[in-house]
Amino acid sequence: MTVLSVSARRAARRDAPTVDVDLYGASALVDPQPVYRQIRDAGPVVWLPKHKVWAMGRFEDVRAALRDDVTFRSGTGVAANPVANLLGRKTVLNSDDDRHSRRRRILMESLMSRAIRPSLPVLRDEAEATVGRLLERESFDGIADFASRLPVAAVADLVGVRVGPQQLLTWGASTFDILGPVNRRTLDATPTALGLFLYTTRLRRSRVTPDGWAASVFDAADRGEISRSEARTMVIDFVAPSLDTTILATGQLLWSLGRDPHLYAQLRAEPDLIPTAVVEAVRLASPVRGFTRSVAHDTDIGGVRLHAGERVVMLYAAANMDERHFDEPETFSLHRRGSNLGWGHGMHTCVGMQLSKLEMQTLLQVLITRVSTIEVSDPVHLSNNCLQGFDSFRARFT
């Protein structure tokens, strides 16, 4: 492979489409769609001089890149800064090839549909209790009081770590925040994210519940399939991604149904549309804005030359709003067909996708039988380097 000089690389970038925006700036986090549109309209892959990375925002290009795990690699990390990439080096997300397959298979033993089905009665009871409690209130916070309840109750118990729900939420949000560039949010979140990392380094079998997910990775270490240090670090794969993403997608689902009474009435009349509603909420929410990948070897994307060692931000959130692929992408539709990138794609598709679907479907099943109307107002948007969605909004059930 030919290694180009710095000047040659600069020339290649100079000739490529350039979008001079701060992808992680305050305005882009609160109102990202104009920035995503700029990136999509500029080309299949564009240079972001502010962050010195490439970005992809069109659906077909992002999906194709996620399928090409030979060219676009995760083993050196998926963050936009080297410190976070170093901390996550033994997780499932930050791995490739056989190492990734081995770690992923171990997690999937706990997260496959047949493994989580026994938890359905617990999820149903929690959903019933949540909706019943909120029906008695004049109004409530759609995120803290509704969207967070089931994921927190499920994950805290299923992971099997002896940590309070609020600590899990704090760790999760901070872990996503440090995946951005070295900006103020990353620096502020680093001590908390480090807290989760240090917690896992001290984990032992005696500190997790016997039948929890965390115990399953220690079982794999006992069988010699992974090392002890891998087992401890892989607990992050259970804790960090399993809360915020489902919470934000559930929040989007409640918001969309509250904003369109006809949509909610249709869902009540046709419960078979519940799985479609869940997938559509994940598309609109796109809780993970995107992860970076490192380029393994020189490659061309739409006539633009990417060189080995460079980084590309795969913008799932921009791709899921691509009008080149979706009709009226800004509209929540109960009749949309086909997949989206809300749970990622390819070999790194979210391992907790089935649990997330089950939680959201369970909530919806209870909601449509007990709640006649939903009202929502006063949205406050989340500000996080890697996550997007609602931080809070007011809601009311009748």
Structure description:
With 398 residues, the chain is of the alpha+beta class. The protein has helices spanning 6-14, 26-30, 33-42, 59-67, 82-87, 97-111, 113-116, 120-135, 142-147, 149-159, 165-177, 184-201, 213-222, 228-239, 244-259, 261-269, 274-285, 316-319, 353-370, and strands at residues 46-48, 53-56, 72-73, 140-141, 291-295, 299-301, 304-306, 311-314, 374-381, 390-397. The strands form three sheets. The chain has a five-stranded mixed β-sheet, with helices on both faces. A hairpin with a 2-residue loop joins β6 and β7 (304-306). The chain is globular and about 60 Å long. 48% of the residues are buried.
Which helices and strands occur, and which strands form pairs?
Elements: H1 6-14, H2 26-30, H3 33-42, E1 46-48, E2 53-56, H4 59-67, E3 72-73, H5 82-87, H6 97-111, H7 113-116, H8 120-135, E4 140-141, H9 142-147, H10 149-159, H11 165-177, H12 184-201, H13 213-222, H14 228-239, H15 244-259, H16 261-269, H17 274-285, E5 291-295, E6 299-301, E7 304-306, E8 311-314, H18 316-319, H19 353-370, E9 374-381, E10 390-397
Parallel strand pairs: 2-8
Antiparallel strand pairs: 1-2, 3-5, 4-10, 5-8, 6-7, 9-10
Helix pairs in contact: 6-13, 8-10, 8-19, 11-12, 12-14, 13-14, 15-16, 15-17, 15-19, 17-19
